[in-house]
Amino acid sequence: MRNRKQAIKKQVKKHIPKDWLTEIRIVYRLTCEILNDFRRTGIINIVIITTMAAILTLFGSLFRTTLSVSSFAKELGNVLEISVYLKNNADPNVTSQRIKEFDHVKAVTVIPKEKSWADFKREIKIGDIDNPLPDTLHVKVDNPENINEVFNKVKTLTVVENVNYAQDLAKKIQVLNHAVNTTTVFVIIIVAILTITIINNTIQLVIQSRKEEIEIMRLMGVNNWYIKIPLIMQGALYGLFGALIALIPINLVQQMLNNVHQFFMIPAPLFAENIVIITTILVGTLFGAGGSFLSIKKHLQV
Length: 302
Hints:
Blueprint: H1 2-14, H2 22-41, H3 44-79, E1 82-86, H4 92-100, E2 105-111, H5 113-123, E3 136-141, H6 147-155, E4 160-164, H7 167-209, H8 211-219, H9 224-264, H10 272-299
Antiparallel strand pairs: 1-3, 1-4, 2-3
Helix pairs in contact: 1-8, 2-9, 3-7, 3-9, 3-10, 7-9, 7-10, 9-10
């Protein structure tokens, strides 16, 4: 045991920076430690990276689906209109300008009663009677969630005879958006818990295998971060490698969703593919590093 400690002490001491090449020696030492830690964990590395890839595949696929669902909901919301029927003595142009001043109103289209009556008579043959239809305004809002607010404001105008819109469709769009967003947040939490747990247990094994070496480094006065960084980097690399592997099935999901967008002739979210790729890599790397850091605080008193 004594000979082993002396051998470890000589090996550590040999790599302690002593001259103007301090930065290069530190990088070299940290790289050696990271590679040694990977070697110590052996085949467990494959299990960890594969598990991370599976978790991040779930996250990336759901995140990309969320972007597409939001795009579909927004497109459906754009076709939602509030139909405003005016009284006979109302000026449609003046009322239109007044409604445009309301918050969340995107556009107002005036449909004169003469046009509505002419279109109606083209579809249905009727006798020569007076036009019973009112002037109509079609009001578009900036977001489906604001349609009820605009509806209530328009309804208070004295020149308005009646107001209506597809309330059931608007409610379904809102429920869909909330459900997708809630599910995404839930999955992010699950991904964080699973990732941190897996990395935590792995780094704990590494710490136990390096216990004597770490103790010698502490006795020699080595900076605490000099001990911590290789372990944190190992966790980050687990997350990075898992994310890179997860991009393969995620890209298949992205292609499938793009085909769905093309089929329904609804444009895919702008830069969705790049956003998903970058987010998946960042989530894997940061959660991996975070799990390693928490394990260090728990199992390594430095």
